[in-house]
Inverse folding.
C-alpha cells in the first residue's frame, strides 16, 4: 500500500527521533527576528540562529517538517510536475554534531528501508570537488559509480553572500524515460521531470569572508531538506505532485467547480494546477497571520490570490470560488496543522473579501489591458509603458506580476523602471495629501498621529521637588 503524506511525515520524524533528534513542529511561515527573509523557504531558515551560533540549540540534533513558501518558483508552478509555491520540507539537522558520513548513510537507509523506494532508481549527486562525499556514496553505501554524478556550483554548493556555506549532495529518483526530455545525456541536474531531486543534504563546512576566501569551520553542520510532496509523488507513482493524496482532492474540486476535466487540454491543466497550488499557499499564509496588502508578505498573498482568481476566469468561472475551495484544504490538512480548523472562518472571510474586491475590477481591467495590447500591436511596439501598467495596478488592482504574466503570454514586456517611478510618485502624492490634512487638523490615520509625538522622558518628580523647595 502506498504511503500518504501524513504517514510519510510521521515515518520521517520517527526515524530521526530514533537517531536522537529533537522533533519539533513546523515553525510559522513568518520569519522571527530575521529581516533578510520575507517568508520561510526552507527547513533550515527558522533555525539560522542555531547554525550561526548566536543561540544555543535545545539539542545538537533536530528534525522538523517545515511549511515553506517559494515565490521564486511561481513561474514553474503548473508547468513542471514538481514545483509548488507552498510545500513541506522535511529535514534533519546537526549543529556541530554528526557530519557527512551519518547524513548520507541515514538518507540512504531511510529512502530504501523506510520509504521502500526502489533502490536501483536512486541516484546521488555531489559537488564536483567533494571527493569525500563521492567516496562515501561509492565505498560506504556501495552506490554504483554510474549513478553518482558530480555537479557544479549552481546545483551543489550552498551559500548566501558571506558566512557559513558548503557543498551539497542530492538524492534523485529516476521516474523513467516517459518523464524525460530529448537530451541523450539527460541525468540528475537536467531540468526535465525524469530525475526528480527529492532530498538535498547540505554540508556546511566552510566560512566565506568578504574577500571570497573559504576557511573550514571548526564544527561543521548538517542541514537537509526533503520535499514531502515530491516523495509522495514518487511513492504513489502519480504524474505530478498535484495528484498525490491531499492535493488530488483539491484538484478534483477545482475541476468540479469549473466543469473542466483534468487532462483534456494542456493549457487548462496548467490553470487547474495553478489554482490547486495557490489556494493551498494562501490558506496556510492567512492561517499564520498574513493579510492581503500592497507590501511585503501581504503583497505576496494578494498576488497569489489574484493570480488564482484570474486563472479561474480563464477557466470560465464568473463567481467567487476560492473561499469555498479553502474548505477542502482545511479538511485535508488539519491533521498535520490543527490551526487551520481553528481559523477556518477567518480564512474564509479574508479570501472572499479579496476575491470580491478583485472580481469587481478584473473584468474591466482585462478589457483595458486587451485594448492596450491591441494598441501596442497597431503601433508595432513590444513594451507596455510604466504608466499604463500603473493604471492597471492603481485602478483595477492588477499586481505588476499579473500584468507582466499576461503580456508574456503574448510575447510582450513592460517598462518596469517607469512603473516603479509611478509608484514612487504616488507615494509622494499620498504623503503630501497627509500633510495637507494636518493643516486642516484632520488625520487620516488616528494612530499615525501618536507616532509623531516626540518621545517624552519623565522628569516630573525632580522638577516638582525643586519647585516646591523654591516655593
Ligand atoms: P529544484 O532544483 O528541483 O528546484 P531545489 O534544489 O531548488 O529544487 P532545495 O533548495 O535543495 O530545492 O530544497 C530541498 C528540497 O525541497 C528539494 O530537494 C525538493 O525535494 C524540495 N523542493 C524544493 N523546491 C520545491 C518546490 N518548489 N515545490 C516542492 N518541493 C520543493
Ligand atoms: Mg529550485
Ligand atoms: Mg536543485
Ligand atoms: Mg537542491
Amino acid at each position: 500500500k502506498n504511503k500518504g503524506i501524513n504517514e510519510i511525515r510521521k515515518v520521517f520524524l520517527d526515524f530521526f527521533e530514533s537517531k536522537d533528534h529533537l522533533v519539533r513542529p513546523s515553525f510559522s511561515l513568518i520569519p522571527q527576528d530575521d529581516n533578510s527573509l520575507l517568508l520561510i523557504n526552507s527547513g533550515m531558515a527558522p533555525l539560522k540562529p542555531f547554525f550561526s551560533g548566536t543561540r544555543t540549540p535545545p539539542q545538537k540534533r533536530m528534525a522538523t517538517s517545515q511549511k515553506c513558501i517559494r515565490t521564486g518558483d511561481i513561474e514553474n508552478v503548473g508547468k513542471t510536475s514538481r514545483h509548488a509555491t507552498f510545500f513541506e520540507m522535511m529535514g534533519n539537522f546537526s549543529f556541530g554534531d554528526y557530519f557527512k558520513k551519518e547524513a548520507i548513510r541515514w538518507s540512504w537507509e531511510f529512502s530504501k528501508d523506510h520509504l521502500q523506494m526502489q533502490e536501483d532508481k536512486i541516484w546521488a549527486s555531489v559537488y564536483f570537488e567533494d571527493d569525500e562525499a563521492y567516496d562515501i556514496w561509492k565505498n560506504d553505501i556501495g552506490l554504483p559509480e554510474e549513478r553518482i554524478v558530480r555537479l557544479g556550483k549552481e546545483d551543489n554548493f550552498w551559500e548566501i553572500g558571506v558566512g557559513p556555506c558548503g557543498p551539497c549532495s542530492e538524492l534523485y529518483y529516476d521516474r523513467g524515460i516517459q518523464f524525460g526530455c530529448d537530451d541523450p545525456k539527460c541525468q540528475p541536474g537536467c531540468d526535465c521531470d525524469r530525475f526528480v531531486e527529492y532530498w538535498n543534504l547540505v554540508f556546511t563546512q566552510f566560512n566565506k569572508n568578504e574577500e571570497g576566501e573559504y576557511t573550514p569551520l571548526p564544527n561543521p553542520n548538517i542541514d537537509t531538506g526533503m520535499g514531502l510532496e515530491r516523495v509522495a509523488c514518487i511513492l504513489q507513482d502519480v504524474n505530478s505532485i498535484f495528484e498525490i493524496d491531499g492535493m488530488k482532492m483539491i484538484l478534483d474540486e477545482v475541476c468540479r467547480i469549473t466543469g473542466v476535466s483534468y487532462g483534456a487540454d494542456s493549457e487548462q491543466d496548467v490553470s487547474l494546477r495553478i489554482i490547486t497550488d495557490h489556494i493551498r499557499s494562501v490558506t496556510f499564509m492567512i492561517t499564520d497571520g498574513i493579510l492581503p496588502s500592497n507590501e511585503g508578505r501581504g503583497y505576496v498573498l494578494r498576488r497569489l490570490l489574484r493570480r488564482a482568481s484570474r486563472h479561474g476566469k480563464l477557466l470560465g468561472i464568473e463567481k467567487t470560488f476560492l473561499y469555498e475551495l479553502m474548505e477542502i484544504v482545511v479538511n485535508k490538512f488539519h491533521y498535520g496543522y490543527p490551526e487551520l480548523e481553528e481559523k477556518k472562518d477567518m480564512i474564509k472571510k479574508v479570501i472572499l473579501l479579496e476575491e470580491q474586491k478583485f472580481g469587481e475590477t478584473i473584468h474591466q481591467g482585462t478589457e483595458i489591458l486587451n485594448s492596450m495590447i491591441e494598441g501596442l500591436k497597431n503601433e508595432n511596439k513590444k513594451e507596455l509603458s510604466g504608466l499604463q501598467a500603473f493604471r492597471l495596478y492603481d485602478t483595477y488592482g492588477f499586481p505588476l506580476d499579473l500584468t507582466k504574466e499576461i503580456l508574456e503570454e503574448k510575447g510582450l514586456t513592460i517598462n518596469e523602471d517607469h512603473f516603479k517611478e509611478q509608484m514612487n510618485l504616488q507615494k509622494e502624492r499620498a504623503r503630501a495629501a497627509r500633510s495637507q490634512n494636518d493643516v486642516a487638523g484632520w488625520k487620516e490615520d488616528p494612530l499615525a498621529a501618536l507616532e509623531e509625538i516626540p518621545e517624552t522622558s519623565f522628569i516630573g518628580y525632580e522638577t516638582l521637588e525643586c519647585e516646591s523647595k523654591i516655593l
